[in-house]
Amino acid sequence: MRQKIGIWFGKGVGAFLILIVCLFLSLPLIALLLRVTPELLATYIPNETVQKALWLSITTSIISMAIVIFIGTPAAYFHSRSYYPGKSFVDTLIDLPLVLPPAVAGLALLLLFGRTGLLGKYLNVIGIDIAFTTVAVVLAQIFVASPFYIRQAKALFEQLDPAYEETAKTLGSSSLRTFLFIILPLCATGLTSGAIMTFARALGEFGATIMFAGNLPGITQTMPLAIYAAMQGDFDVAITISVLLVAISLAIMLTVKLLTDKWRYNV
């Protein structure tokens, strides 16, 4: 009897803790959604500020994700299959943006690419300005979001049995052909999940962007920056953009969950 009471007590404590976590994570979103009405969305979604911020965020996030995939995929593969001095340091460097405060990342990028920055002063001589442009938005997004993809890709390649590659090579397949037609298809679901998470992180980037790119409507003002600006003027615009971001984020997380479950099932 005492044992059963202990078991039920443990389950009760566990359920209570889970309830606290769920309430803490969901109540802020509920408070946001309760402020939204169809009339509010119909009024402010066509708003020029909302539209510009929405399309700039989506466009730059897609570009950032594409660049990370194009460079990060082969880099993660070679890193996972190679042993070289300083590999642990490279691992740390890849993970660093995950723990680095975004404002610090933005300031570091500004000191690198600004007009008087380490590289920016040379680019400025030939008429190339990066800071406070749309290019700066993309660079900031890549810096903070790339670890989400590279870490995922590296883990997938490390888990993949090298026997697939060895078998392909014995059959006369080149390294490039093996990578493109055997390795990538086997890891496609997990890589897609990582790419979507990279897109989501880029879409929500704020700190590094405002430090490095500024908050210029139509040029560098992404959705998070538009929320920040609207909070000082039109609160309804801020709510509308926030709801759009919540909807996009929810769709992204559901997609990642489905892809992850599919990958685990196939494995």
TrEMBL record:
Keyword annotations for this protein, in alphabetical order, are: Membrane, Molybdenum, Sulfate transport, Transmembrane, Transmembrane helix, Transport
Q: Which InterPro entries match?
A: MetI-like, MetI-like_sf, ModB_ABC, NifC_ABC_porter, Sulph_transpt2
Q: Which Gene3D superfamilies match?
A: MetI-like (1.10.3720.10)
SUPFAM superfamilies, alphabetically?
MetI-like (SSF161098)
Q: What membrane topology does the annotation report for this chain?
A: Multi-pass membrane protein
Lineage: superkingdom = Archaea
Which stretches make up the ABC transmembrane type-1 domain? 54-256
What coarse category fits the chief subcellular location reported for this protein? Answer: membrane
Location(s) in or outside the cell: Cell membrane; Membrane
In its keyword annotation, does this UniProt entry include RNA-binding? no
Give the stretches traversing the membrane.
Answer: 12-34, 54-77, 89-113, 125-150, 179-200, 206-230, 237-259
UniProt-listed Pfam families: BPD_transp_1
Mind telling me which GO cellular component terms the entry cites? plasma membrane
* Family assignment from sequence similarity: Belongs to the binding-protein-dependent transport system permease family.
Q: Know the name of this protein?
A: Molybdate ABC transporter permease subunit
